[in-house]
Design a protein that fits this description.
By secondary structure, the chain is α/β, with parallel strands linked by helices. The protein folds into three domains: 172 residues, NAD(P)-binding Rossmann-like Domain (Rossmann fold, 3-Layer(aba) Sandwich); 247 residues, N-(1-d-carboxylethyl)-l-norvaline Dehydrogenase, domain 2, CATH 1.10.1040.10; 35 residues, 6-Phosphogluconate Dehydrogenase, domain 3 (Single alpha-helices involved in coiled-coils or other helix-helix interfaces, Up-down Bundle). The strands form two sheets. Strands 3-2-1-4-5-6-7-10 form an eight-stranded mixed sheet, sandwiched between helices. A two-stranded antiparallel ribbon has the order 8-9. α8 crosses α13 and α18 packs across α19. Bound molecules: 6-phosphogluconic acid. 6-phosphogluconic acid binds next to α8 and α12.
Amino acid sequence: MQADIGLIGLGTMGSMLAMNIADNDFTVAVHNRTASRIPDFLDEAGALAERMTGHEDLADFVAAIAKPRNIILMVPAGAPVDAQIEKLRPHLDDDDMIIDTGNANFHDTQRRAAEAEAEGHPYLGVGVSGGAEGARFGPSMMVGGPEAEWERVRPIMEAIAAKFDGSPCVARLGDGGAGHFVKTVHNGIEYADMQLIAEAYGVMRDGLGMTAEAIGEVFDRWNGGPLQSYLIEISGKVATAEDERTGRPVLDIILDRAGQKGTGRWTAIESQMLGAPVPVIEAAVAARNLSAMRELRLQGAETYGAPDRRLTTDEVTIDTLEQALIAGKILCYAQGFDLLNRASAEYGWGLPMPRIAEIWRAGCIIRSAMLSDMAAALSEDPARNLALAPGFAARIRDTIDGLRKTAITAQAAALPVPALTSAVGYFDTLTSERTTANMLQAQRDYFGAHSFERVDQDGSHHGPWLGQHLKD
Ligand code: 6PG
């Protein structure tokens, strides 16, 4: 049998993806660096193994795939991808294509795609979202690479992708690193959405003194309304789960130190490089980093003592909190889509903005009810900030007071809510006819003669202080 496609990397995600491919009636050849994993995996695959072949030897693996070959790499992002490509290269024919489905940094994908092209090999960089379950039963996939190469694997990719109303949640979004860039921003939004939810949880837990179970019920209720989303749904589930060892809520025995593999951080870095601010995402990344500095936090708590963080439901109601999350969520997506727009122009990708919102509607971690409306708003005007789209402006008008009240009240009670407050700061700046940047310009001109623009005259100007303070 000549396999329709090859797959290297039988970790959790790779294994699930291979099973998904076989489940959709395609044949797949598999290979793994640690050879002992291959028979174990074929065992786990059960009846699906009939449409799979396992190969310890890389040359055998390549020979088992139908030409022109399409080979998925699902190995840890970074150096392992380069190492695997290096090993694979001597076995490839000209038209053989590598498809990197890991969480690659898009700069690496741009470089690898250029290197592959120079050697006559096509290359696709594909962001895959949805965790293990998504990989097995339908992920959302963001594809970067040339149109013709995408068409080559399109039937397989569409078959294995999640479906929203029957439409596959996979699309080619642009050349080179476009797919991995969009996946990075997806993850940045994921970090922000998670942090906003965690802050609402904190207000309920530490401010309102609610039990994990009661908080779980609130999330369940919210999941039936405008906040309906996978992340709200799983927040309800984790809040009501019980620890088998202690019988306590699992949430209460999980250490408050968050990990990260870096994609949220990359979103913040790229936003800084492109000058497209994503402050809610930055706040979420910083909150994770601070959470990880547990020793410092313990010292801080000891140095300053524990404040009384209790609130009453007169101060913040559950409905107010829901409003805060609705407004916060819209504002953080507005930032994410603005960043995508900026990157699209910078790299010449021509990102199809509404399509991105559409393929996030099923399979991925940030899937939510709001994405259909976002897709519609972006269809009207792909470059417009979402907060300015009439439908979302109406929702923000209805909820911004709840966001503001939650942020202010939580801060007054010393509850840390950096993402919620940053959403307020973003909104207030976004809606300021006159910011305070005139002061920055004056300072820059004073100390560095950087010049400024005037409100009443074109051109660049200096203040009366120029030269003066050097004489003083
Ligand atoms: C997804 C997720 C996934 C992510 C991990 C962990 O879309 O399926 O974004 O790709 O890598 O869930 O990410 P962190 O370790 O950075 O939280």
